[in-house]
Amino acid sequence: MEASRPQVQVQAQAQAQAQAQPKPKEAKLWGGRFEEGVTDVVERFTESISFDKALYKHDIMGSRAHASMLAHQGLISASDRDSILQGLDEIERRIENGEFNWRADREDVHMNIEAALTDLIGEPAKKLHTARSRNDQVLTDFRLWCRDAIDKILVSMKQLQVSLLTLALNNEGVIVPGYTHLQRAQPVLLQHLLLAYVEEIERDAGRLVDCRARMNFCPLGACALAGTGLPIDRFMTSEALGFTAPLRNSIDAVSDRDFVLEFLSVNAITAVHLSRLGEEWVLWASEEFGFITPSDSVSTGSSIMPQKKNPDPMELVRGKSARVIGDLVTLLTLCKGLPHAYNRDLQEDKEPVFDSVKTILGMLEVSAEFALKITFNRERIQKALPAGHLDATTLADYLVNKGVPFRTSHDIAGKSVALCTLKNCQLLDLSLDELRSINPVFEEDVYEYLGVENAIQKFVSYGSTGSACVASQLDYWTKKLEMK
């Protein structure tokens, strides 16, 4: 027994050494002309599977359409097509069940799926890449992914609009100070202010719809950059994937990232709108304003100051807008110096897009949630309204109605405010004699224009903050957002 120990140890050491030896690398699908493989450092640096596996569903969609077209054109047999389609179904099932082995040495989502398909069905899989390149393949996947992402964002935008409109409908008649330069300007209905954000989000949604329409053209079949000499039908694959048409120019098809730049631009504009909403609500939740109180369910506290109640979600909305803007700047910088057609730099286009979409969806979702969890402190708002002479412009309008030129009316109203400042009172508190001491045009009916409630009723222009105008706006949005 003692004599056999060295032999056992030698065997164990040999086994350990064998296990420690690096396994031979799989030959690259593109490696026919290469005599040696890439180093581990290069492989780690150039792989994209760690993030572009998010495109798997769209990659499989594109491959299904491509295989069906190849069979229709007689470039592969119907039997090969069926084998490919069945294999792709199985690979999709494995991915969705968490059974698929993503391999970094297979570089990206396309090579992982194609190599796995070859492992699964053998020779027919090698025909799938006929008349396509990874250049047109990835652009097809990416356009399909972005198209789906836009659809998700549009749903979230509508949900935020519904939340804002619900908040408006629940606060009928509430008047708040309107600000310019962060100084009190004129009284506005709270509903009117909330609908301003609904309008902004609607423009964002319109930009996304326009972006989606321009995005919805198919690169598949453009191949590396020059197209192919094989008799493919690009219109067939385009229609199968729900695109409007194939892209006309094969070089443009694999070079273009305008659709991504436009998408990120819309996201950045939306993020700025949400940041402004966040800023307003953060200010209004402060003790200095005290106009809103967020519920505990959308607030956080301090680890050291027990009295604190912070509107953190909207602060983060404001903060995360920087990420979305940064994602746009990243891609603009990436594209600015690239010659046509495809360059490996463009592998870096996906992570900013994935980040932008994830972030903007989160911002929209939490903004909608926050809107449904805040209370407007009507008594505090009412007490704040007298400051700032919010009815001064309405007083100028009164004088215009009396035939006084506006510049003269402006001057008279300004002198009236100056008198109020001296007396520490409101315009409504000035006697008729005091007003006539400034200008004799004043009559008793001036008091129908003074005070924020009266001022609100005097707004009559289309789109204004007058009660009737705002009621019309509310009716429009209630119908458009299908809330009736």
From TrEMBL:
Pathway it works in: Amino-acid biosynthesis; L-arginine biosynthesis; L-arginine from L-ornithine and carbamoyl phosphate: step 3/3
Residues forming the Argininosuccinate lyase C-terminal domain are 390-456
Mind telling me which Pfam families this protein's record contains? Answer: ASL_C2, Lyase_1
Q: Which NCBIfam families match?
A: argH
A molecular function (GO) held by this record is:
argininosuccinate lyase activity
Lineage per the UniProt record: Eukaryota, Viridiplantae, Streptophyta, Embryophyta, Tracheophyta
- Its name, as the record gives it, is argininosuccinate lyase
Q: Which CDD domains match?
A: Argininosuccinate_lyase
Please tell me the species this chain comes from: Cajanus cajan (Pigeon pea)
In this chain, the stretch annotated as Disordered covers: 1-26
Fumarate lyase N-terminal domain residues are 32-326
